[in-house]
Amino acid sequence: MAASAMAALFFLFSALLRSSLVHSQGLQIGFYDNNCPDAEDIVRSTVQKYYNNDATVAPGLLRLHFHDCFVQGCDASVLVSGASSEKTAPQNFGLRGFEVIDDAKSQLEALCPGIVSCADILALAARDAVGLTGGPSWSVPLGRRDGRISSASDAKSLPSPADPLSVQRQKFGDQGLTDRDLVTLVGAHTIGQTNCIFFRYRLYNFTA
User: Fold this and answer.
1) Model-level pTM greater than 0.85?
2) Phi, psi at residue 200, to the nearest 5°?
3) CA-based angle 130:134:140, to the nearest 5?
4) What is the domain partition of the chain in residue ranges?
5) Which of 108, 148, 147 minimizes the C-alpha distance to 124?
6) Of 44, 63, 65, 67, which one is the catalytic site residue?
7) d(Cα 126, Cα 70) in Å, to the nearest integer?
8) Which residue pairs form cystines in this protein (predicted)?
């Protein structure tokens, strides 16, 4: 990977790590070392398995983690199913990677029942997805608890492709993130793909 791309990924995931810690207190490196020491290895191997089959799962996991953290913190509430859960919100249309988290969770429940949270699995999976794309790795502070409340209406806080800059800045600022974080995290979409409808209007007669 080119040095410029590596630098971009470094800043991207520095921002992502900050966003994942904004609402999380009391986390620590090696949280599961005593009660489920193989947790990180199991998540890593699971992500590797899915990535080997379909490399586009990497940006999918990144987006999934970002959308989770941006709404009520990194509590895995985006994984909750229900008629009016976050998962059903228009802002979360096209989220993917759920099967990776479900698979890792099933393995961990068989090995260490009731120990490893889905929120931590998602944070680890996003980190490991980055490494598989050639980006940097980092130690993930763990110990998150899974949220029990998930509401589609809360997803309105997520940035939208139609938001003007002022709204984007306010939404990121509300999360304790800077303008640089905004540019970096929104730029994360460059490792995935999008539909023309989301940027076509910027190609013609765009003055902003």
Assistant:
1) no
2) -55, -40
3) 35
4) 3-202
5) 108
6) 67
7) 14
8) 36-112, 69-74
The radius of gyration of the chain's CA atoms, rounded to the nearest angstrom, is: 17
Residue 37's φ and ψ, nearest 5 degrees, are: -65, -20
Averaged pLDDT, groups of 10, the chain, 208 residues long: 46 54 72 98 98 94 92 94 93 94 99 98 95 89 94 91 88 89 72 62 64
Biggest distance spanned by C-alpha atoms of the chain:
59
135 is known to lie in a ligand binding site = no
pLDDT at residue 197, as a whole number: 65
42's torsion region: left (phi>0), alpha (psi -120 to 50) or beta?
Answer: alpha
H runs (alpha helix) in the chain: 3-21, 39-53, 57-70, 98-111, 118-132, 165-174, 179-186
pLDDT at position 2, please?
A: 45
Size of the chain, expressed as the number of residues it contains: 208
The architecture of the domain spanning 3-202 is: Orthogonal Bundle (1.10)
The token pair that represents 41 in the structure block: 């290895």
Is 67 noted as a catalytic residue in this protein? yes
68 in a labelled binding site: yes
Q: Do the beta carbons of residue 19 and residue 185 sit within 8 Å? A: yes
Q: Residue 73 annotated as binding?
A: yes
User: 193, exposed or middle or buried, with CB in 10 Å at 0-12, 13-18, 19+?
Assistant: exposed
Tokens of 150: 């998930």
